[in-house]
Structure to design on (306 residues):
């Protein structure tokens, strides 16, 4: 979908993987004439300019958001309440403000307290890599991915139009868009994204603690499933700290179900219950096939690695 000329000026606050990817993608789609980036860290600002993610890197948030029709808040979730409050106070009246946080309840709650000077539309592009920083961004990150919008409880026409515009922006960078309430988002993502990361962090931590298996052996034999977990476990520690602090209730809910499933498998292994093991493992294979059939993954062995 064409997004040409949607905004004269867009400001990206937090120019890391997601912020710089959106900047690249918007430029490729011609969605904004000028894209500026603001990050607290001057070094990140310099790197964001050097790698061409943004056109300019003003030294203050005020300067970055002034005159911007679109402001993207792409900091870690823990910083968002503060940044949104600043943006809501300093941006031009009526500006569209979106965030890209992986958790939505905490963002929706913070945004709802800020009044209607700007239109804050909470979003979550379900796309990412284990990399971070401005250099990690690339224009095609959002293509063929879903972007979820969890609107605030505002019924006015201007807000409805802002939600439409946010959806159009995600479509312009190649995403499909789904609108849902933030509670549903946080529960769904707890199972599809947050729990897998927690398991990866736990597994890698457990391997590290296993003193009888040398680190060299872990590295040497990691061609199997372990290597795939290490990719997930390499994700940004600050981002994931904030995800678990911000989505406590939903993560604890799915973690409870997961430990019950784990106990079932533990019992099946102990008692030689082949039928249960096979039944559970078959479900895994079926789910993988459904993900491939939906075009969310390629049907090539070993994720297409050489
Ligand atoms: P990232 O690469 O670490 O980028 C975040 C940037 O925000 C960093 O440069 C950070 O600077 C900066 N920042 C922190 N506090 C700030 C503040 N108060 N004002 C301005 N800049 C600030 O992280 P990311 O992976 O792009 O994640 C950004 C957001 O996208 C998170 O909310 C995350 O939940 C969400 N998200 C991530 C993924 C993913 O796979 N990575 C996918 C979807 C959504 P410092 O490093 O100096 O603190």
């Amino acid at each position: 979908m064409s997004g040409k000329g949607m905004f004269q000026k867009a400001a990206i606050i937090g120019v890391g993987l997601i912020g710089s990817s959106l900047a690249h993608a918007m430029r490729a789609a011609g969605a904004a004439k000028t894209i500026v980036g603001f990050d607290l860290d001057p070094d990140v600002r310099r790197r964001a300019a050097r790698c061409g993610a943004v056109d300019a890197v003003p030294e203050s948030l005020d300067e970055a958001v002034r005159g911007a029709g679109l402001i993207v808040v792409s900091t870690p979730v823990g910083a968002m309440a503060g940044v949104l409050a600043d943006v809501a106070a300093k941006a031009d009246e009526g500006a569209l403000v979106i965030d890209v946080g992986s958790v939505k309840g905490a963002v929706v709650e913070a945004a709802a307290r800020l009044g209607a000077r700007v239109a804050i539309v909470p979003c979550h592009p379900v796309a990412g890599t284990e990399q971070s920083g401005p250099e990690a961004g690339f224009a095609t990150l959002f293509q063929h991915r879903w972007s979820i919008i969890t609107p605030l409880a505002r019924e006015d026409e201007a807000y409805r139009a802002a939600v439409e515009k946010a959806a159009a922006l995600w479509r312009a960078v190649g995403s499909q868009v789904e609108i849902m309430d933030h509670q549903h988002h946080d529960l769904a993502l707890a199972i599809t994204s947050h729990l897998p990361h927690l398991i990866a962090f736990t597994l890698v931590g457990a391997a590290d603690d296993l003193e009888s298996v040398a680190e060299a052996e872990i590295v040497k034999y990691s061609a199997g499933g372990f290597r795939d977990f290490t990719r997930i476990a390499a994700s940004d520690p600050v981002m994931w700290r904030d995800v678990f602090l911000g989505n406590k209730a939903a993560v604890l809910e799915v973690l409870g179900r997961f430990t019950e499933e784990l106990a079932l498998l533990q019992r099946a292994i102990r008692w030689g219950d082949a039928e249960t093991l096979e039944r559970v493992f078959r479900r895994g294979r079926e789910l993988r096939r459904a993900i491939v059939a939906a075009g969310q993954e390629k049907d090539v062995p070993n994720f297409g690695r050489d």
Summary: The domain at 7-180 is CATH 3.40.50.720 (Rossmann fold).
